[in-house]
Amino acid sequence: MSETELYSFPVRVYFQDTDAGGVVYHANYANFMERARTEWLREVYGYNHAGMMRELGVAFVVRSMKLDYLRPAVLDDLLAVTVTLKEVGRSRVTIHQTVWRGEERLVEGELHLVCVAMANFRPVTVPDVLRSQWKD
To answer: pTM above the 0.85 mark?
Structure first.
């Protein structure tokens, strides 16, 4: 499977996102990325988390996340958080995300998500309705 087109989600840095020095606290980048993935799924594929849980009986959970912090974001920055689907396995999905401030790359991440059944949180096959949309 080849990469899907890039999706971009805007995020403004608020006071609550920063440490005492006005710099974005490192864990908040994971929150920014979660918001971007959620909106990517909703806007591009027409699914939200509640709908997937209710209609398909599944959810995607983060199995692993590797983040590289390149430059800091600060209070009131307008960021763009991108999402690129890299690979879809039987139950695993690999996503690449980047946080940008204009043309400046701040954080890069590779995430492995696992599709799990809501009944027992065990890995299950990615539903065909999503897999068919994620194919070339």
So the answer is: yes
Is 79 in contact with 12 (CB distance < 8 Å)? Answer: yes
- State the Cα angle at 11 between 37 and 66, rounded to 5°: 50
Instruction: Go through the domains of the chain in sequence order and give each one's CATH number.
Output: 7-134 (3.10.129.10)
Residue 15 per-residue DSSP state = G
19 belongs to the catalytic site: yes
Catalytic site residue from 19, 76, 77, 136: 19
Determine how many CB atoms are found less than 10 A away from the CB of residue 37: 23
- Write out pLDDT tens, residues 60-90: 999 999 999 999 999 999 999 999 999 999 9
Give the separation between CA 20 and CA 72, rounded to whole angstroms: 14
pLDDT tens digits along 99-135: 999 999 999 999 999 999 999 999 999 999 898 888 7
> Shortest CA distance to 118 belongs to which of 63, 65, 51, 64?
51
